[in-house]
Design brief:
Layout lengths: L4 H7 L2 E5 L4 H5 L2 H7 L4 E2 L3 H9 L5 H9 L5 H26 L6 E5 L8 H15 L4 E6 L4 H10 L4 E6 L2 H20 L9 E6 L1 H15 L4 H8 L5 H16 L3 H7 L7 E5 L12 H4 L6 E5 L1 H10 L10 H13 L4 H35 L1
Parallel strand pairs: 1-2, 1-8, 2-3, 3-4, 4-5, 5-6, 6-7, 7-8
Amino acid sequence: MADNPLKALNEVGQSVWLDNLYRDLITTGSLIHMVEDGITGITSNPTIFQKAISGSASYDESMREMLSKGITDAKELFLNLAMEDVTRAADVLHPVYRASKCLSGYVSIEVSPDLAHDTRETINEALHLFSAINRKNILVKVPATVEGLPAIEELTASGVNVNVTLLFSIERYKEVTEAYIRGLEKRLSKKEQINEITSVASFFVSRVDTLVDKRLEQRIASSPGEERGRLTALLGKAAVANAKLAYREYERIFSAPRFLALKEKGANVQRLLWGSTGTKNPKYSDIKYVDELIGPDTINTMPEATLTAFKDHGKVRITIGQGMDEAGEVLRELSSLGISMKEVTDQLEKEGVKAFADSYFALLDEIRKRIGRIKG
């Protein structure tokens, strides 16, 4: 096995992706070095682009060019800037895409977060992004909201690679896989190829612990001794348990006869991607959400700090199947103590959509200010 833990993850079947994208990463050659170091894909989101564009003058030249062509709408400018970065990154990663036989080498771009509850406009914008970028190794991110489900099905049927994002609950995950499979079936019924379609389901991890731990700590402060002990024992357990049980569903769904019939026609499984894997609680290991979720046919997209930490002291061993019974017990124990995972995941979805929308609108405001300065 490789001495580099990032490459060792790839060797056991878990792709390592970077959860960040900004222009200097590409123009300085840093991305090429990261690919050589074991990175095989990139994810981005509105918050990442807000930090990238707001905190840098690297985009000013492109903005000047767009303004000179009469592009003055802030949203259109943002989408063009984002598409430039994604296109360049996809070109850097294209050799990985070819070498992996279309398994890795992908770059993700998200539909505008204000469309999270608008099925038709999500479809329209995703089709536009996929067509305009015109690279086979890109994924268009669609939120796993109720309104996002029919969009996932329709986009898959249309041949668009979809990264389903903001996914927190096991029940919603099963609905996402159903939308993907229906999309493949619909496409096959039109006698169109399905072998080049790729999709991933981005299952968010650390945010689950953040919210569950907060609720546990509130209860611990006012509970008697025995119950306090039960509550304390659950701290830092919910997120990994939730993810492991989602993986069990993945194994069941993609080994069932319905999908195997599609696989014979060339269909690819919709791999689980672990998102939000940076550790937010300093009491926990800085590689907790990598270390405990290593398994084949999965992806872990990490912020740079987590990548650096795992490369420094990560140990690669298959852990995803360990403790499945205990994972189920964790969720049952939470329920018995009055902590509803449905309430937790519903809240996280709402907060996630709002956070991305807030970043998006803040970015549009920044772009409008930048336009004023450039024109001035």
